[in-house]
Amino acid sequence: MKMSLQEALEKHSEQVIRRYPLVLLDGLPLSELLEANWEEVKRFKAFPDDLLIASYPKAGTTWLQEIVDMILNDGDVEKCRRAPIYDRIPFLETVEPKPIPSGLDQLAQMARPCVIKTHLPFHLTPKSFWEQDTKAIYIARNGKDNMVSYFYFDQMTTSQPDPGTWEEYFQKFLSGNLTWGSWYDHVKGWWDAKDKHRILYLFYEDVKQDPKREIQKVVRFLEKDLGEETLERIVHHTSFDVMKKNPMANYSIIPKSFFNTDVSQFMRKAGVIGDWKNHFTVAQNEIFDEDYRQKMAATSLKFRFE
Q1: How confident is the model over 34-44, as pLDDT tens digits?
Q2: H or E segment to which residue 31 belongs
Q3: Half-sphere exposure for 177 (CA within 13 Å, toward CB)
């Protein structure tokens, strides 16, 4: 009998995990771990009725996954607690140290169609998703808050490259020298593709400001018909405070050998907008604003930082 990802993590919780360096795969910096499955990921066969959830890391992916799972299960809270989020919605390209199953291993065991998570930029997402006209939902977060959240994540995740100091990380983020590459290229690539494919593009800041309105967008995109009571239940159970207490959504049951929660929590803060102000120096903010102005000059994509 195949083990779930959670069962495998628990069984191998004493495994020594090291920080893997970055390697370039088709020009994208990714963890050396992902190299083993890379060609197979590119050949992944999507089904027309699959659903892809995409984002740059730490942009609200888990939040969106929980919202989608609640919608697809008609707001049934118990159904959405059937397993941890990473077993309910596999992470396409991820590879953990063997013998932990990869995202492809998980997907091979699942009934299709299913919901799939990725952090791949649009141009490296398996072509079969677009050949099959599969729906995708992308969530984007302003670069300043995204940088701060990713910094803490890289500190706690024992297999990610060493983030170094905040100053070093700031420079890595601007240059795109992080796992899954440039934030700029990522958010712009999916933005440019949204009108050519069945892609719903959401903003973290909008979901935070008016979750009910944004969840209704997802409901319509998934062609579901949910009553007001069900919608309110989904809004409540996908709020930060409720998800932070939900072990099926908050990654708290992952062994510390994989996620060192003594360093940081996976759900670190109340998802506030503007937490970057507690980390950016005046000089860093000026450097970011100029970098943003130059790299976003040719796009209609706009972000709110407050």
Answers
A1: 999 999 999 99
A2: strand 28-31
A3: 11
* Residues contacting residue 5 through CB under 8 Å, at least 6 positions apart: 84, 86, 87, 90, 100, 101, 106
Q: Which CATH number fits domain 5-13+47-295: 2.40.30.170, 3.40.50.1450, 3.40.50.300, 3.40.630.10?
A: 3.40.50.300
Separation CA 31–CA 95 (nearest Å): 9
pLDDT tens across 252-287, in order?
667 666 666 666 554 556 678 999 999 999 999 999
The DSSP line for 161-191 is PP---HHHHHHHHHHT-STT--HHHHHHHHH
HSE (side-chain half, CA atoms, 13 Å) at 85: 23
For tokens 């027309």, name the residue.
Answer: 48
Q: Which residues are paired to 115 by β-bridges? A: 51
Q: Locate tokens 């130059």: which residue?
A: 294
What is the Cα gyration radius of the chain? Answer: 18
Global confidence as pTM? 0.92
Phi, psi of 202 (to 5 degrees): -115, 155
Active site residues: 119
Query: Has residue 249 got a pLDDT over 90?
Result: no
Quick one: DSSP state of residue 29?
Answer: E
Cβ atoms 185, 298 nearer than 8 A: no
